[in-house]
Amino acid sequence: MSEAVEEILEETKMGMEDSIDALKRSFKTIRTGKVSTNILDGIFVDYYGASTKLSQVATVLASDATTITVSPWEKNLLGDIERAIQSANIGVNPNNDGDQIKLFFPPMTTEQRVESVKQAKSMGDTAKVSIRNHRKDGNNSIKKLEKEKEITGDESKSYQDEIQKITDSFTNSVDALFKSKEAEVMKI
Question: What is the domain extent for residue 174?
Answer without folding.
Answer: 3-29+109-186
